[in-house]
Amino acid sequence: MVAIKTIGQVLKEKRTALGLGLSEAEQLTQVQKLYIVALETDDYKALPGEFYIKAYLKQYAERLGLNADRIIQAYDEGKGITVEDKEDIQETYHFVKPSDRVDPEEDGPKTWQHYVPIISLSSAAVLILVAVVVAVIMNHPETPTLITNDYSTSKSESVQKSTVASTSKTSESSVPNIRVPDTKIAVTGSGSAITANISNIEDPVKVEFSVADGSNIWVGMSNSDLTAAGKTLSSTMKTISSVLTTGVTSSVISVGTVNGLTITINGQKLDLSLLSTTGPATITLQIDRKSTTTTNATGQ
């Protein structure tokens, strides 16, 4: 039997079919319980914004084993989802817990063909080792006499000192001094939104996120190589880094919470103390690039 259901109904029925309560679903999907309830009741106004709605829909659907692209398409079109009866849905999206998964065992004794690749690789490694040893022995130079060695050493030291002196004079007279600008970050704002004005910075601009032990924080960033769905930091993945697109002048960082979160920009720590919220927050990066100033050492 074909039926049209809302996105929330499909998500809730799938969670129920997997035998997951709200707390278990929160642990599995890394989506907060209150947002799970909002998604399953199609109450999108309870979510912080359009970016979070799609990110949480994608993350929740994928962790439940549903077709995330189909869910996002239904949301964008504002339509329901056409599904078969309950049995078909369960059969299509059969969930197997990690603890129940068993790797298939090989039946029967292993034949000699099983060891052919291992024997071939071992033989190749031995031949390469023998070839290297022979090459070293064949190309080993004769031991020079004491007189020749002393002469070569003295000559080498003399040439080296002459080269260093010449290089030093050339560097002092012609190599320019390059002043690398100091990157400055000024933070304004409060509550759940702040702006970081970054000046005197050069590409590439690398942003690094890290979390404290026991924290689970979702992060997303526009105008960067971070995926549209963002990433979730946890005890198993405590640090991620992303590089802003070359030449961009702004980027928006979205986070699930700031508790236990640290952000650095090109190695400089970003001050998050003005964010007083315990829930989702946004950090807008305003980037002002300035070129380095080059002057000649002679003042010309």
What order do the helices and strands come in, and which of them pair?
Blueprint: E1 3-5, H1 7-17, H2 22-29, H3 33-40, H4 50-64, H5 68-77, E2 81-83, H6 86-92, H7 116-138, H8 146-174, E3 177-179, E4 184-190, E5 193-199, E6 206-211, E7 217-221, E8 231-233, E9 239-243, E10 250-255, E11 261-265, E12 268-269, E13 281-288, E14 293-295
Parallel strand pairs: 5-13
Antiparallel strand pairs: 1-2, 3-14, 4-5, 6-9, 6-11, 7-8, 7-10, 10-13, 11-12
InterPro entries: Bact_Cytoskel_RodZ (IPR050400), Lambda_DNA-bd_dom_sf (IPR010982)
Region (Disordered): 146-176
Pfam family, one: HTH_25
Looking at this protein, list some descriptive labels.
single chain; 300 residues; alpha+beta; 434 Repressor (Amino-terminal Domain); six-stranded mixed sheet; four-stranded antiparallel sheet; 37% helix; disordered C terminus
Structure report:
This protein has 300 residues and is of the alpha+beta class. Among the domains are: 96 residues, 434 Repressor (Amino-terminal Domain), CATH 1.10.260.40; 107 residues, no CATH class. The strands form four sheets. Strands 4-5-13-10-7-8 form a six-stranded mixed sheet, with no helix packed on it. Helix 4 runs antiparallel to helix 5.
Mean residue pLDDT:
77
| Strand content range | 15-25%
Number of helices: 8
Percentage of residues assigned to helices: 25-40%
Which segments are poorly predicted (pLDDT under 50) over 5 or more consecutive residues?
Answer: 88-93, 292-300
- Cα distance spanning the termini: 85 Å
